[in-house]
Every structure is written in C-alpha cells, then in structure tokens.
Design goal:
By secondary structure, this protein is of the alpha/beta class. The protein folds into three domains: 4-126, Rossmann fold (3-Layer(aba) Sandwich); 153-396, pyruvate-formate lyase- activating enzyme (Alpha-Beta Horseshoe), CATH 3.80.30; 402-457, OB fold (Dihydrolipoamide Acetyltransferase, E2P), CATH 2.40.50. It has 14 helices and 22 strands. Strands 1, 2, 3, 4, 5, 6 and 7 form a seven-stranded parallel beta sheet that branches. Helix 7 packs parallel to helix 8, helix 8 runs parallel beside helix 9 (263-271) and helix 12 (332-345) packs parallel to helix 14. The chain is globular. It starts with a strand and ends with a strand. The chain binds S-adenosyl-L-homocysteine, iron/sulfur cluster and FE3-S4 cluster (F3S).
Length: 459
C-alpha cells in the first residue's frame, strides 16, 4: 500500500539537498510525500547538530509528532547529522519514541529500514559513515516540493542566502561530501565523515539535466567545497566544466574554506561571466591564538592578506563570512581582533554565532566552554551592530548603478514588483511589468536597506 511521508528539514543546504535525495530514493519505492504532517504514515526529521539549539528543537519535535496524533499510529524516522552525533542517546533513550534512524550516508537503506520497522516493530538503524558514498547515481527530486516542507533553524554551510522562493531557478548540487579539516569546535567531520568528491562528468550531467528542466542557476555544495578533488581535477576544473553547460547562466558555491583559494580559481572567477563574483569566506575568529586553538590553519594577518588578494584578483567580489564568538578562553582583547577584522574587511554580510560546545569534537575534550553566555551575547550584539552599518553602507553604494538581476519570484508585498538576486547575491526588489521567473534583467538601483536593494527595471 502507498505510504504517505512527511519530511521536515533543518540545517544547511546540504541537508536540503539530502532531503531531495531521500525523496528520489523513496519515490522509486512507491512512497508519496505529503505537505500535511497529520496525513502522513511516516514522519521523517532530517536533523542538524551544528549548535545546541538546532538539536534541542528536534527533541521537542519527536514528542510533538506523537502528541499531535491523538493515538493515531505514525512511524518516526531521524535522519541527518543528529543521527550520527547523538547515536547512543537516540538508540538507547527509552523516552524517545523513534522507529528508524539513518545517518547521512545511509539514505539508500531507508526503504529497507522502513520495511523492517513495519515488519518487526523494532527500532531500525544504519549509522555507517562511508568513504565512498556520493549518491552520484541518484537524481534528487527537486521542484516545487523542495521547499514546500517547513524548514527551520538555518544551520551551517548554509549561508548562500538564496531565498526559499527561488524554486525552479536555483538548484543545489552536492559535489563533495564530508570534511577532513577537523576545526576543533565543529561536529561535521564526525557527523558526515571523510571528504569524497563526485566526478566532473557526473556533476556536469546533473547540471545539464537541470538546465533542460529550466533551472538557470546551480549552487555547488560541499562541507568544504573548494577542497573538491576527483582524480586530477580540482574545484576550478569543475566550475569551468559546469560553466560550459548551456542554459545554466549562473554558478555559485558554498561553503569553502579559506585555505583553498589558488589563483587558478580566482582567475576563473574573474574571467568567467557565469561564475558569480561572490565568496563566502568563513573567518570564525580574528585572533591568531584563538584561530590556532580552532585549528583554522591561518592567522589574522594571513586572513587579511587573503582578502586583499581576492579583491585584487576579482574586483567587486562580494564577500560574506561566519564568525563564532566566545570560543574557549576568548578574552575581551581576543574578541577585539575579531571586531577589528570585521571592521577592516567590511564583509557584505556576516553570520555570527555563539560558541556552542558539541559532543565528539576536539574542543569538547580539550578546551572548556568557559566564556559566560552573557558575554557571548554582548559580543554578538556588538558584531551585529557593526555589520548592520557596514551592510547598509555597502548596499547604498549601489544606488545609481545598474545591476543584472536573476528574477526569482513576484514580490509578495508589492503587486507591481519582482524579486531577484544580483551577481553578488544581493536581494533586489524592483518595479517592473510582469517578466518571466528565471530571466536576467538590468535593474537600476535607486534605494537600499541593510536587507535589500530597491530599483526599477531598465529598458
Ligand atoms: N564547512 C563550513 C561550515 C559549516 S558549519 C565552513 O567551514 O565554513 C557553519 C558555521 O557554523 C561555521 O562556519 C561556524 O561559524 C558555525 N559553527 C560550527 N560549529 C559551531 C559551534 N560548535 N558553535 C557555534 N557555531 C558553530
Ligand atoms: Fe566544520 Fe571546519 Fe569542516 Fe567547516 S571546515 S565543516 S567548520 S570542520
Ligand atoms: Fe547541520 Fe550537518 Fe549541515 S550539522 S549544518 S546539517 S552538515
């Protein structure tokens, strides 16, 4: 009998992509995905473990799913990074009513796990991490349902900032999975295992199919995307190959690590019109001692030099970043270095997080979480205020300029406006006659807020 499935996704774009993979894997086995949780026979929670609040929400949801049912039966499955991070608790905690658990490399086993769960009534699980699984042979089920699911708690490698409404315009393609960097604060190498990459040909095939379906932009994904390596091909080779796909007009990528930006890649970005001039460059801290404790492999000065170099090579490049405040032993003076780097660099946008100690990480074993929460909050507030002014200043600098905007959707607030993204990923709201979603049009920028640019279609 056809089983109805509801899936909810937390965390980064990789998890969004994985949900699309899961849909494809189960669609082959005659499951139907539904938008209404109460209609579903099976509820799957695709979870994130990057910070404490991400996983606390999921624990709440597990109880909530059953409670809402008033006794009507439902199977609950836990997928994603919490599955591997909290495996012992999920498997042994008698208060958690879970039927099956699958880690990020075990989604092909889902049909078996679900069937076994129905057959035996026992908790089923597969949390094996693979050195090889890249799901190269699965074509994700994208389209309207991709973002139809409720999605919460932006997590991680996530911050390309592409609006959920951009369905049908942007598609994610995971080109590598896992991470070998072992930043001491980070749970990802434990939840997703070692780095592995798909072949260039396989990624290009996926991009071609997406172009045939009408997608105009692809965002290449990986926990550490610029470490992409398949046989003798590196990330620049991959980008170049994808840029040759007819119909794909823009290519973005997330999330890279500052250690892997060779000139070969920066030159490609500068010269290839399809490669958007936008880099997410996670700083994490501006203090060299803290960066060393974090195992980030660069100093304050090296990071500043990298920014100068990137800007010299790719004029006008938009830069965003991630910062953690209150890592173990971070003093006020240490934090001033982070403030200083943010002020000097003037990122276009920044995502700031309070340090959250995670099970399994090196920091949880070696470095105490000893900065009081109130101080972490103070530091976040200072960075947020600083960044808001910088973002506004940067956005206002576009006033009077004409930018190419990829149209994502009609504005929900203003009937005569459309919404899209400029090459640097800035959100642009502009007045226009109705135009096709997916068109790239010139827009004259007339106003700006910290959140968006506003303008008019230029004929
Ligand atoms: N691979 C990506 C990061 C994935 S996690 C990269 O290297 O950029 C996304 C962001 O979450 C990180 O950049 C970091 O700023 C934040 N983060 C990761 N672990 C964290 C932790 N334990 N506490 C607080 N923030 C964390
Ligand atoms: Fe985590 Fe560092 Fe890997 Fe990013 S590079 S996923 S922060 S270990
Ligand atoms: Fe979260 Fe896992 Fe992504 S921990 S941020 S879902 S890689």
């Amino acid at each position: 009998m056809l089983k109805k499935v509801y899936i909810q996704t937390w965390g980064c774009q990789m998890n969004v992509y994985d949900t699309e993979l899961v849909k494809a894997i189960l669609a082959n086995k005659k499951y139907a995905f539904v938008q209404d949780e109460l209609q579903a026979d099976i509820v799957m929670l695709n979870t994130c473990a990057i910070r404490e609040n991400a996983h606390r929400k999921v624990y709440g949801r597990i109880h909530d799913v059953k409670y809402k049912r008033n006794g009507k039966p439902v199977k609950i499955g836990i997928l994603g990074c919490m599955a591997t991070n909290l495996r012992t608790d999920l498997l042994e905690n008698k208060n958690l009513d879970i039927d099956f658990i699958a880690g990020p490399d075990s989604y092909k086993r889902l049909p078996d796990l679900i069937e076994e769960s129905y057959r035996t009534g026992d908790k089923q699980f597969d949390l094996t991490l693979s050195e090889f699984e890249t799901y190269s042979d699965v074509y994700p089920q994208r389209g309207t349902s991709s973002y139809g699911d409720k999605r919460e708690a932006k997590g991680g490698s996530s911050h390309s900032g592409i609006a959920p409404e951009a369905r049908g315009v942007n598609a994610w393609i995971a080109v590598m999975r896992g991470c070998n960097n072992f930043c001491t604060f980070c749970v990802v190498p434990y939840t997703r295992g070692r780095e592995r990459s798909r072949s260039v040909a396989n990624v290009v095939d996926e991009a071609k199919r997406l172009a045939d379906e009408g997608f105009k932009q692809v965002t290449l994904l990986g926990q550490n995307v610029n470490s992409y390596k398949h046989e003798d091909k590196d990330f620049a080779d991959l980008m170049e190959a994808v840029s040759r796909v007819n119909g794909i007009e823009r290519i973005r990528f997330t999330s890279p690590h500052p250690k892997d930006f060779p000139d070969k890649f920066l030159d490609l970005m500068a010269e290839n019109p399809k490669v958007c001039k936008q880099i997410h460059l996670p700083l994490q801290s501006g203090n060299t001692r803290i960066l060393d404790l974090m195992n980030r492999t660069y100093t304050k000065e090296e990071f500043l030099n990298l920014v100068d170099h990137v800007r010299a090579k790719v004029p006008g490049v938009a830069l965003s970043t991630d910062v953690i405040v209150g890592f173990s032993s971070e003093t006020d003076e240490d934090f001033e270095d982070t403030y200083d780097v943010m002020k000097k660099v003037e990122f276009d946008t920044a995502f700031t997080f309070k340090y959250s100690e995670r099970k399994q990480t090196i920091a949880s074993r070696k470095y105490p979480d000893d900065v009081p929460d109130a101080i972490k909050t103070e530091r976040i507030v200072r960075l947020t205020e600083l960044q808001k002014d910088i973002t506004l200043k940067k956005n206002r600098a576009y006033i009077g300029k004409t930018l190419d905007v990829l149209i994502e959707n009609p504005s929900t607030k203003h009937a005569d406006c459309l919404v899209g993204r400029a090459d640097g990923n800035q959100l642009v709201v502009f007045q226009s006659e109705p135009r096709a979603i997916g068109d790239i049009v010139p827009v004259k920028i007339e106003d700006a807020s910290p959140a968006a640019l506003k303008g008019t279609l230029k004929d």
